[in-house]
Amino acid sequence: MSIRFASAASAVALAACFATPAMAGEANAATVAPATETEAEIIVLDPAAALTPAIAPVDLATANGQEEDTPAITISGSATLASDYRFRGVSQSDEGMAIQGGFTISHESGAYIGTWGSNLAGWGTFGGANMELDIYAGYKLPVGEGTLDVGGTWFMYPSGADTTDFVEFYAKLGGAVGPVSLTATVAYAPQQEALGNAFPVDAAPDPGDKEDNLYLAADAAYGISGAPVTLKAHLGYSDGNPGLGPNGTSIAPTGTYFDWLLGIDVVPISGLTLSVAYVDTDISEDEADLIRPNFATLDSDSISDATVVFSVTASF
Prior knowledge:
By secondary structure, the chain is mainly beta. It has a single domain (about 10-45, about 75-315), classed as monomeric porin ompg (Porin). Helices cover about 10% and strands about 45% of the residues. The strands form two sheets. Strands 1-4-5-6-7-8-9-10-11-12-13-14 form a twelve-stranded antiparallel barrel.
C-alpha cells in the first residue's frame, strides 16, 4: 500500500509545530515507548520539597570525595489497572478492564530495551490470542535542547496465529517550552502480512496480501505549579490498511482516521499515578458498520466510540 501523504498533510503540519519548539525547549519529554507509554513525561512538583531545611546537612561521603557513582544500567517498570485498553483510540479489550505491565532496562549511553503486556478482548480475534506482548528497543540522544528517541517495537500475540505479529519503527522528538513538555512522533510499520488486507470489504480475499501503516502523533503535558497534577493532550493520525487484516491485527481499521485524548494525571505519593482521560476518534458509525461484528462489543457498541478511561499505575 502506498502511503497517502497528501491525506496526512494536516497531521504532519501539526506534528511539525510541536517538534519545532521542542528543539528549543528546556527539557526532555513521552507514551508510547510503544502504544504503551505516555507520550510526554509527567511533570510533578514534590510537595516534600517545602520541608527541605534551609541549610542542607553535610554529606561526609561527598566532603571526602566519595560521591556515589551513577549506575551504568538502570531498571524501571510499572503495573497498571485500567478501565479500558485503548490503542490509538480503539479499544483492544472490548471496552472492558485491562491489567498491564512492563519494564525497561536503560544504559547510560542512551540505549534501552524493554517489554510490555496487556490482556485483550477487542476487535478481531488476534489469531486466537488473549494477550498482547510487546518487545521494544531504542536509543535516546540529545538534539539541541531536546531529545530524539529512535527505536522499534515488535507486537506479539502469544498463542495466536502465525500472521499476527508485526514490527513498527518509531522516532520521537521531545523537549519543553517553559512548563509544557512537547513530543512529536512518527511511527511506520513496513509491509507485513499481519497488516495485510486479507479480507477486504466488497472484494475477493487475498490471504498473502501485505500492507504498511503510518502513524503521526503530537503530545503535550503541562505540570501545574505547586501541585502533583499534570494536564495532558494527544492527537494522532493513522494511515494504513482498512479492514480487519488476516487476524484482526490491522492497526488502521478504517484506513485513515484521527484519534485524540485529553487527560489529567495526579501523583498523590511517589510511584503512584491516578489518571483519567477522555478518548475519542473520528471513525463514523457507517465506517464501523463495515467491519462489524468484530468491531463492536457484545452489546453492539462500536469500540471506537468516545469514552472516559480511568487507570491506576504503580511505578518504580
